[in-house]
Design brief:
The chain is built from 14 helices and 17 strands. With about 425 residues, the protein is of the alpha/beta class. It has two domains: about 280 residues, Dihydropteroate synthase-like (TIM Barrel, Alpha-Beta Barrel), CATH 3.20.20.20; about 110 residues, Sulfite Reductase Hemoprotein, domain 1, CATH 3.30.413. The strands form four sheets. An eight-stranded parallel sheet has the order 8-7-6-5-4-3-11-9. The chain has a five-stranded mixed sheet with strand order 13-14-15-16-17, sandwiched between helices. Strands 1-2 form a two-stranded antiparallel ribbon. Helix 1 links the parallel strand 3 and strand 4. The structure holds iron/sulfur cluster (SF4). Belongs to the IspG family. It comes from Allopusillimonas soli. This is 4-hydroxy-3-methylbut-2-en-1-yl diphosphate synthase (flavodoxin).
Length: about 425
């Protein structure tokens, strides 16, 4: 029989230590966001407004920043968009939104950055795609122009290589070299290698052109989970630049969330990744902030960062007699998230709070006891009352039609008592 007793040492828990990287600092005014160098994994997002519409873009940047995006990328694709960038920044500054803006450039970035110096100065970072800059000498010249602007304005860059726009000349060369191997690799393996080589060789070239090595972040985005994991493991082993993680074209709804989470969780668990973006396709009219919430939830559920109190809720089953507990779980989750912009400054540490909303007596009391504050709603055939547990102790029992409102008030009261300034003062 297999021996199932444990050794003297408990199994280790948690992610591997973060990979050591250079530190890249992205600034706006007095506000600085560090990517890599041991800093917490940074959450970023991207707008989908027409950048030339300064008012709409500023409004969406503000919404993303308020949801918790620490960097926001905007498309800069036309002279009108480049001209709008300073206006967007000015509007954000008037609204006290200090989030740094990253400009996303393809094809004509060298021209736009040269022709619109105010745009170049206003952006806090440039995303450069070396696969979309023409070919041969033209490509080299265009790249050199963008690096020259980055050096002149002292801006960091991301060299963002993408599966869908990989440098054709590099890939063709590598395919030819592969054909001469004694045992040629599969084409897909050569493409993965080409992504990594493209990112690192362009970073080295940027350094040769005078860019500070601490001003470079890399990404190699692909749309399949296993390819992404392989590419980033390889990339992280071959350089020490901070890495931007994201599964490109992840898709809509649960497919996009699951694919992004599966890929990023494996890498983050291995200590790989310094900033993340979740590329979800929004439903028509959908809320762009969802990509920020998902990014935060990945990091928080993995225990890497805390952003907002977490609600533990059971899935419900044949023992739940109504939708009351689903509604309560949903309402309390939304309430906690809505409060965070205020609570963050007023109640430091509240983002680590755990709340349980459970559907019946089977796991309700146990799970509620493990949470900071929990409620166990009655299942089918149980006495219609809902005991509330605070710090592991059973306290008040709620009854009647106002359970949701009363529970919310209890949570608010608990937050004030446990995380308010007076609570901190009495602990110190
Ligand atoms: S706690 Fe009760 S209602 Fe919830 S899943 Fe478990 S058995 Fe079902």
């Amino acid at each position: 029989m297999t021996d199932i007793s444990n050794s003297d040492v408990p199994p280790p828990v948690g992610a591997a230590p973060r990979r050591q990287t250079r530190a890249t600092v992205v600034r706006w005014g007095g506000h600085a966001v560090q990517v890599g160098g041991g800093a917490p994994v940074v959450v970023q997002s991207m707008t989908n407004t027409d950048t030339a519409d300064a008012a709409a873009t500023a409004a969406q940047v503000r919404a993303l920043a308020q949801a918790g995006s620490e960097l926001v990328r905007i498309t800069v694709n036309t002279p009108e968009a480049a001209r709008a960038v300073p206006a967007i920044r000015a509007q954000l500054d008037r609204m006290n939104v200090s989030v740094p803006l990253v400009g996303d450039f393809h094809y004509n970035g060298h021209k736009l950055l040269g022709q619109f110096p105010e745009c170049a100065q206003t952006l806090s970072k440039y995303r450069i795609n070396p696969g979309n800059m023409g070919g041969g000498k033209k490509r080299d010249d265009n790249f050199a122009q963008m690096i020259e602007v980055a050096c002149r304005h002292d801006k960091p860059i991301r060299i963002g290589v993408n599966w869908g726009s990989l440098d054709h000349e590099l890939l063709a060369r590598m395919m030819d070299d592969n054909a001469r191997r004694a045992q040629p690799w599969e084409a897909q393996a050569v493409m993965r290698d080409a992504l990594v080589i493209s990112a690192i060789s362009n970073a080295r070239r940027a350094e040769e052109l005078g860019l500070n090595p601490n001003a470079i972040v890399l990404s190699c985005k692909v749309s399949h989970v296993q390819d992404l994991i392989t590419v980033y493991r390889d990339l992280s082993a071959r350089c020490d630049y901070p890495l931007h993680l994201g599964l490109t074209e992840a898709g809509m709804g649960s497919k996009g969330i699951v694919a992004s989470t599966a890929a990023l969780a494996v890498l983050l668990q291995q200590g790989i990744g310094d900033t993340i973006r979740i590329s979800l396709t929004p439903e028509p009219g959908g809320d762009r902030r969802r990509e920020v919430v998902v990014a935060q939830e990945i990091l928080q559920t993995m225990g890497l960062r805390a952003f907002t109190p977490m609600v533990v809720a059971c899935p419900g089953c044949g023992r739940t007699s109504s939708t009351v507990f689903q509604e309560l779980a949903n309402d309390i989750q939304a309430y906690l998230r809505e409060q965070m912009p205020l609570w963050k400054t007023r109640y430091p540490g509240v983002e680590n709070m755990n709340v349980a909303v459970m559907g019946c007596v089977v796991n309700g009391p146990g799970e509620s006891r493990h949470a900071d504050i929990g409620i166990s709603l009655p299942g089918t055939g149980e006495v219609p009352s809902a005991p509330v547990y605070i710090d592991g102790e059973r306290t008040i029992t709620l009854k009647g039609d106002n359970i949701a409102v009363e529970f919310q008030a209890i949570v608010e009261n608990y937050v004030q008592r446990r995380y308010g300034r007076s609570a901190h003062a009495s602990q110190s």
